Amino acid sequence: MQNTEIVHRSVAERRHETLDRLATERDIWVATAHPDHGPHQVPLWFSWDGQAVWVCTGAASATVRNIRKEPRVRLSLPDTFDVVLLQGAAECFSHQDVPTYAADAFAGKFGWDPRTEDGPFVYVRLIPKVVRAWRGEPELRGRVIMRDGAWVK
Fold first, then answer.
1. Is residue 46 assigned to a domain?
2. Residue 111's domain spans which residues?
3. Please, is 139 exposed, middle or buried when counting C-beta atoms within 10 Å of its C-beta (0-12, 13-18, 19+)?
4. pTM higher than 0.70 for the full model?
5. Rounded to whole angstroms, how far apart are CA atoms 72 and 132?
6. What is the CATH number of the domain that holds 106?
7. CB-side exposure of 20: number of CA atoms within 13 Å?
8. Splitting the chain (153 residues) into consecutive groups of 10 residues, what average pLDDT does each group show?
């Protein structure tokens, strides 16, 4: 069981731990919304390239349909004690248009390459504009660690 004692972290510590989690974790919740159909949330595998989160999902998925209508997206890592939320505008890439480095990194991390599948898949890139990170109520103040695409110092 995880230790739930809250030790107040500095912004630099939060940024460091957030970047470590983005580099090592497997799953991320992707929340999108369609102007007519409302919110949609789904867990997906992700990779982090140092600047952007990459996920991959079926071309006909609600996630892709929503992003094409409304690109504003919120992502969250699954730990409810050690919260990390990212938001920004997502961009879709077909398997033909995705940058090779991003698709190769995704395939290398998961041992699965959507480019080799029969059905069409879409890669989604989100370069965060805002990142929030906190552990419990004592860390709510100062939870914004990225604003307007720049890490808070």
1. yes
2. 11-151
3. middle
4. yes
5. 16
6. 2.30.110.10
7. 7
8. 72 97 98 93 98 98 97 97 97 97 98 95 98 93 96 95
